[in-house]
Amino acid sequence: MPLSSPTLCPVCLSPRITSRNWARKTAGAIGCAAGATGGFVGALRGAQIGIASGLITGPVGSSVGGIAGAVLGGLAGTAIGCEVGTSVGRTIDSLMLDNLKCLECGHSFAQSTPQSSFGSSDD
Prior knowledge:
Blueprint: E1 17-19, H1 22-54, H2 59-95, E2 100-102, E3 108-109
Antiparallel strand pairs: 1-2, 2-3
Helix pairs in contact: 1-2
């Protein structure tokens, strides 16, 4: 695998570059909120089923099963939503936004992607 060259500012050629990641942060937060909401809604429905089926073991079993189902469903939904949102945001940052900023001159720019030629091999 070839080594990638450091990113340089196209204006002042400084190697002191930072990434802003606005879309990744925003989409990650939205994904977390949406995932948590969906996870809790699904978990509450699952908890209702758990409570109904937990009545066989008594009131303690149905209460513990219902609470555990709601909490675990919310956490799982949040994690999945955050991961999906972050992935979407990372793609938006790399393809659509001027995600990089020079710390020397303040210029914002997009990452230039190297053009690959068909038929070349990196064996």
